[in-house]
Amino acid sequence: MKSTSTNRVRVEAGGDQVISHVGLHALGSFSDRLGLGQALTMQFRRFDSRFVLHERGKVLIHAALMLAGGGDNCADIEYLRSSERLFGAVGSDSTLYRTMREITPELLGELRNAVAGIRTDVWRRSAATTGKKPVVLDMDATISEVHSENKQNTGPTYKGGFGFQPLLCFADATGEVLSGMLRPGNAGANNADDHLVVLDDAIGGLPPEIAAGHRNGDDQGLVERDVLVRADSAGCTYEFVHGCRKRNIGFAVAARSTNQIHGAISRIAEDDTRWHKAVHQDGEESTHSMVAEVTDLVDLSAWPEGTRLIIRREPLHPGAQRSLFPSLEYRYWGHYTDWSGDCVTRDVEMRAHAHVENNIYRVQESGLLKFPFTNFDANRAWMFLVCMADALMRWFQLLVCTGELAKALPKTLRFRLWHTPARIVRTGGAEVVRIIDGWPSSKDLLQIYERIPLVA
């Protein structure tokens, strides 16, 4: 019986015709079909028409592939350079570094517009984003720790660390980042101005037919499709919700504990006629959680007309988050919203805001935890690159992946897809990639290559 986990081999350098990033080649091919690299290059040329050996749009796409593959700094681009027969001439880490430093705030705005143009095309092809259903946006902040005080605009975080506190806005239907703001670690959680800037950037990144009527001061008659934004208690400010109303955008924001809420809950705590069984995300009734509306029991005159307050209670359990109301039996949680419909449905939709945690995890796993520059503008450009890479991967999963891969997290994609090993040979005047025998995801990857020309 053999008890060792490996075979004894001799390891040497000098191998050829072997490649290990076939899945990333599929992602790059998908990007090429969308025209993303060319769109980015055109924006660079508007600001600098000098000849460059590596077109800057291509450099950013290669960097996005590197981030998808698990890289988190400029030096990791070198691992794509070893597969020139797959990716062509890949810029060095120095080229990527210079490219990021070249992205001024003005150019960054144009690059975002270029990505928005591609997003419009992608969303028009996907059943997840077409139709007349409301477009739901989720806002939340996260922490990106850094280990140097030399980076511009960093600061101490509320968790006792040091670094940045990016504020992000996601599209719930696809999970992709629509916009983000890189902020110091000590940025105010309830800063309504920051929330509105990120919201406006997100609206600017939506297809024109969705964004219509949702810019500040737009007439409501221009609205072609409803938009709802969800946020945790950081968005629970008068300035933010009134700003949403000025943009004809619905809101749902988690409530903070107040004396009025205490009073309202105490009045209905034992009133069984007020409480309705909550419903899970799959539509099944909950056996323990209940929902009630207390709009008539609180003063909402400072809120936009039509604002409602909905309360949820569930049995108290170890580790439960802070409650709106002191109780030894239940944890109480609530949110304000200006959308119509029964309180149970509104509760279900607000609790779906939890999707934002998975979305944040995805971007953290794709480069958001590392900011490699001391210059703030360069780090802001790096965050744009991370968000673009995340959007590219989500589009890829949305349009060409099926089954588990369509919802897989970054680590799963790397293990099963991005780093697929193969042998590359030249035959009949063409480069042929032969996936190694026995690779479990080879069938999925072959199907992906068949679908790319059809959907992109």
Molecular structure report:
This protein has 456 residues and is of the alpha+beta class. A hairpin with a 5-residue loop joins strand 10 and strand 11. It is globular. The model has no long low-confidence stretch (mean pLDDT 92). The chain folds into two domains: 173 residues, no CATH class; 228 residues, Transposase Inhibitor Protein From Tn5, Chain A, domain 1 (Alpha-Beta Complex). Helix 1 packs across helix 3 and helix 13 packs across helix 14. The strands form three sheets. It has a nine-stranded mixed β-sheet with strand order 7-6-2-8-9-13-12-11-10, with helices on both faces. It has a three-stranded antiparallel β-sheet with strand order 1-14-15, with no helix packed on it.
CATH topology of the largest domain: Transposase Inhibitor Protein From Tn5, Chain A, domain 1
The termini sit apart by 52 Å
CATH C-level category of the largest domain: Alpha Beta
Low-confidence stretches: none
- The helicity comes to 40-55%
Query: Approximately how much beta-strand content do the residues carry?
Result: 15-25%
Q: Give the name of the CATH architecture of the largest domain.
A: Alpha-Beta Complex
Number of strands: 15
Give a short account of the largest sheet.
9 strands, mixed
Describe, in short, the structure shown.
The chain is an alpha+beta fold. It is built from 16 helices and 15 strands.
List descriptors.
456 residues; alpha+beta; Transposase Inhibitor Protein From Tn5, Chain A, domain 1; nine-stranded mixed β-sheet; 17% strand
